[in-house]
């Protein structure tokens, strides 16, 4: 019977684990591309609908907030139906509001579709679930982090490509009003194409699909419990909530920085929009390798030490992120601000990778529930950071300073998630 992969052969798609690895990060990339596709077109959309800043804030909060709920639901669905069916369903259903937003004629209809588009952000949980059930303990951290990091880059690609897509449409002779709508159809169509590919070329776990395995009476590690049972098991585990906090403090901060970095550089250092955009983009580019690096280092730490070495590494990453944020907030020149941003950005992305390198070991009976709740923590962190900035009257520098202290404090949650001697020994036996 097929077993989990104990190595990552990047240039191979001959095995179920490697097909799942490549297709899951590609599906994630397309989903994040679709999730963030509206953002770079907002100046045009704002003008067409006559949006106020308050309405734009509502649109941004809606896009992030709904993901919290869907991430909580989607994890247990992976346990119940398997990641293949769940991802295919999310891609098909998620394409509807992505295509629908192109047809919006009012602020209210645009807000409604933007709210629903937020659901595709839950794709992250399925990606982490699928790689977790496909790869063995010695490489699962690297597999999780690499798939997540490359998928995350879809958000950055949207920032660069959507304005170009709209410009291409306008060059073909259409109006600006039709141009942005036509551009938004592209990610919706890509999601539908990817749904067919995912359904046809992946399977739930190395042994096959959950429905067939259950029918044959074969035990499934990731999907022993389904739906509500998976959620209850995960919610009863205190480590899940500790990692919920750490993920809010790393991925939540990552989303927050994406939203405010360019504005901060313009307001605080008087950079042009182009210069600020370049500086802010450098933070996003770190996702291409830094998150994968965090997972890889976690795997290596576990091989040299034990399961708790992964916990210690996450603690160090969170302290580094907090210190880097404080440096960034208090940098008095553009050069130092960019250097500080890249330093704390490395720690932030690596902490994201190190968090999900721990997920497969928290509770193997409810992998989907664990992945879903912790993933939701990232969006809770982003929403909380947004409200914190509102509370400081929009003072970005003060907000960043407070976040730096809070992130460093959250490192205590990482160290409190240490595993028992029994769990450490079981992990060592599985990796042997």
Automatic annotation (TrEMBL):
The keyword Transferase does not apply. It comes from the Bacteria. The chain crosses the membrane at residues 20-42, 54-74, 86-104, 110-129, 150-172, 178-199, 240-266, 278-298, 310-329, 335-359, 366-388, 400-419. Keywords: Membrane, Nitrate assimilation, Transmembrane, Transmembrane helix. GO terms for molecular function: nitrate transmembrane transporter activity. GO terms for cellular component: membrane. Residues 20-428 form the Major facilitator superfamily (MFS) profile domain. It holds the Pfam family MFS_1. It is found in: Membrane. PROSITE patterns: MFS. InterPro entries: MFS, MFS_dom, MFS_trans_sf, NO3_transporter. SUPFAM superfamilies: MFS general substrate transporter. One of its GO terms (biological process) is nitrate assimilation. It is a multi-pass membrane protein. Belongs to the major facilitator superfamily. Nitrate/nitrite porter (TC 2.A.1.8) family. This is MFS transporter, NNP family, nitrate/nitrite transporter. It comes from Pseudoduganella namucuonensis.
């Amino acid at each position: 019977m097929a077993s989990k992969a104990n190595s990552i052969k990047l240039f191979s798609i001959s095995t179920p684990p490697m097909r799942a690895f490549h297709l899951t990060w590609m599906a994630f990339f397309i989903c994040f591309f679709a999730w963030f596709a509206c953002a770079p077109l907002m100046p045009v959309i704002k003008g067409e609908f006559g949006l106020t800043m308050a309405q734009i804030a509502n649109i941004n909060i809606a896009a992030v907030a709904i993901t919290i709920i869907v991430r909580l639901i989607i994890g247990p669905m992976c346990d119940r139906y398997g990641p293949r069916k769940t991802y295919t369903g999310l891609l098909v259903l998620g394409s509807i509001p992505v295509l629908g937003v192109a047809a919006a004629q009012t602020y209210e209809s645009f807000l409604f579709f933007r709210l629903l588009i937020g659901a595709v952000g839950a794709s992250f949980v399925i990606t982490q679930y699928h790689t977790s059930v496909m790869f063995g303990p010695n490489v699962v951290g690297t597999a999780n982090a690499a798939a997540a990091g490359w998928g995350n880059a879809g958000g950055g690609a949207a920032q660069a490509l959507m304005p170009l897509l709209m410009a291409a449409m306008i060059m073909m002779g259409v109006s600006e009003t039709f141009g942005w709508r036509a551009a938004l159809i592209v990610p919706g169509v890509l999601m539908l194409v990817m749904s067919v590919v995912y359904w046809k070329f992946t399977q739930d776990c190395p042994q096959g699909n959950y429905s067939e395995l259950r029918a044959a009476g074969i035990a499934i590690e990731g999907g022993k419990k389904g739906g509500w049972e998976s959620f209850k098991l995960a919610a009863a585990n205190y480590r899940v909530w500790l990692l919920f906090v750490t993920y809010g403090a790393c991925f939540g901060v990552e989303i927050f920085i994406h939203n405010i970095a360019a504005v901060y550089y313009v307001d605080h250092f008087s950079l042009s929009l182009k210069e600020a955009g370049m500086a802010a983009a450098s933070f996003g580019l770190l996702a291409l390798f830094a998150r994968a690096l965090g997972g890889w280092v976690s795997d290596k730490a576990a091989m040299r030490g034990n399961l708790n070495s992964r916990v210690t590494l996450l603690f160090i990453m969170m302290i580094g992120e907090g210190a880097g944020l404080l440096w960034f907030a208090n940098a008095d020149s553009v050069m130092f601000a960019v250097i500080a941003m890249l330093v704390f950005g490395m720690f932030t992305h690596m902490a994201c990778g190190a968090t999900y390198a721990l997920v497969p070991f928290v509770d193997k009976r409810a992998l989907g529930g664990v992945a879903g709740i912790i993933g939701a923590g990232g969006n809770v962190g982003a929403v909380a950071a947004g409200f914190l900035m509102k509370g400081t009257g929009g003072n970005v520098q003060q907000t960043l300073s407070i976040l730096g202290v809070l992130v460093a404090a959250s490192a205590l949650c990482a160290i409190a998630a240490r595993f028992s001697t029994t769990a450490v020994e079981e992990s060592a036996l599985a990796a042997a």
